[in-house]
Amino acid sequence: MILWILTLSSLAPIALGFTTSNEDIVVTRNVYVDFVTQELNPESLVGNPNRGQYGPRHSLPALAVYALTGDKKYGEAIKSSLRFYDQWLQEEIKTQGAHFSWEGPYLCGFHIQELRKGGLVTEGDEKWIREMFIRLADNLSAWKPGDGLWRGSQHRSQGQAIARGLAAMWYPDCPKSQDWNEYFKVVWNDWWQYKDVGINDTGYFFGSFIRILCAAELMGKEEVFTDPDVQKFIWDRIIHEVTPAGAVTPYGAHGGWNSEVGSRILALELAAKHTNDGRYRWVAQRLMNYLMKNGRKLHNQHHIHATNIEMIALASVLCDDSIQPIEPDSSSKVLYRKEVLRLTNEQVEQKYPGYGGLDCNMDMSQKIMPHKVIMRGGWNPDDLYMMIEAFPRHDPLNPTAILGLMSNRSAMTMMESEKFISRENAVRIEDLSGNANYLGKDNYQGNKQLPIGYDGMEVSVKEFSDHKLASHVILNVTNYMGYKAEHEREVLFIKNRFVFVRDKTTFDDSFKCRIGPVWNSQYANYDTNWVNTYLNTFYFQGTEIYDNPRYDLLVYHSPKSDRKLVVEQRSELENARLSTQYLWEGNVTPGFSIEFNHILVPHDPRQPANELASAIKFIKDDSNLVILKVHNEWVVINPNGEEYLLPNDLPNKITTDAKVLYIAVKDGKTNDILALGAKFFRMDDNDIFKSKERKDFEQIK
Q1: Which of 67, 195, 299, 604 is the most exposed place for a label (fewest CB within 10 A)?
Q2: Domains plus CATH for the chain?
Q3: How far apart are the first and last CA of the chain?
């Protein structure tokens, strides 16, 4: 709803709370504050400042208003709330021997910083504040009282270190400050030496990284925002994992659809302020607009709603409206990160002697590994977007899975929140004989599920290229899903049209096998080799948190007589409960290879799926050559680079040796051409392109 109101700072048209408009608005500090005011009502703190252990969090909406307006009633309410928080803290330490308020130290730091600016901190207050910060530092444990000081880049260890580092910085005369500062430096370096945080998800990652960012803001660590490696391994991920519509595609352990959007907005606003880079502000605004348009049901899940809005409140305090938003690069790209390793308890004791432990037993190495493949049609909200898992470490161990697919502002994937194992939107292998080699062991009789921390797979990006018409990638995985098998997934992403996927699995073992690509959704109608799907509602812990505007996805498999489509309900899944697989069953032997080809076509639900399916035809499909026709568009996959002649129902006679080819026919003419890895492209016996070496050729008319 757009209203003329007397805002907290000026008379202006402001979008209040969630909006029904499809148009994006310019997001400023005022917009953040007005949104937070509508969602979490800072007046409630004035009437009831006693929030116990939640005081630092629940005071953030009031902080947003106080920092903007200077209205002292909010400042006094915040100070009262922190006093109650400190009473809770003292009682917790007395009864439990420790506390676990990891966010308390840095959130209190921001509150006190603003209260000092407003002249609301007296000399007597300073004495209490000092004692509170020292209490916070000296008694913050990781997992249980008295379990020592922990190491690692995760949220508990970083929380312990940051609490002590802040207290040591603010009160260097404290007897323990030197020891605290040394501990802080050691644990800070547990992430800084890698310029990365060792968590492959959209949940716990921000639990750790927001602590790091808040500490960097309070301690003046500009390098966290400006260091080129941090930008490469963290900030590029934070930008490019955002869809064109402005949503966050969740993966790993997460808080549901659009997971941790408030934390991502805060991170981006901080990065914009410290780098003067408008790309960060632009993405923060796109995220905020999507949230305001689509997040009405977040109220249903109190914790997820509150934690997201609270981070937006803090973003309003720390953002810089002078930074002009600049649209980021819209090309497709491979994102990278450092290797994550899960150590055994014995390995932790050996590497980190004298400490309580390594948080989550998760370590890192300097090995650079592919993280995600991002394929993007652009930054227009309706543009096609895809995210592919490329990381074979940490959970949920699902390389080549299509984590995200979005078109026309509608999501077509939703990964379950998984800490450990996930098998979604990728090729699934099952051992029907029970005697396959698994995890390197012959005749493995146990449950064939990858163990936590499995590091036996390796992923390589064999090919990647991005062009105006399409993006192309080939991912190779060894020891795929723990089997003696090598898997290759090739994706040709035709921008804002459709996606072609080729899967090839080569075995080095003998057993009876069931194998085929999986696609999970909520609703579907289907035929023998295709399934039409859509997602309607997103849930978290049994509660509806987002509606998804309907746009359908046709998953069309190249028809084979020895394969069948299986569709089943999986009650253990919360969101994409309908699991589909186009599978083959049979005996595999060393050297045996099998391929699956399918196409993903987003479309308006008013277009009948059977009519769309009738326009798709695999003209040829074998290991040497795949020719696909989709109405007036053609895709060819030619792994060996042999010369071939396209069928004669094209308007021109076309011969080429391109390894990958895309052609679009318009008005009876061969207009758009993308030939990858070609030495020549010949049309009606005329060489349109010719080279001694294999090169890429693109023509757009």
Answers
A1: 604
A2: 366-607 (2.70.98.70), 615-701 (no CATH)
A3: 43
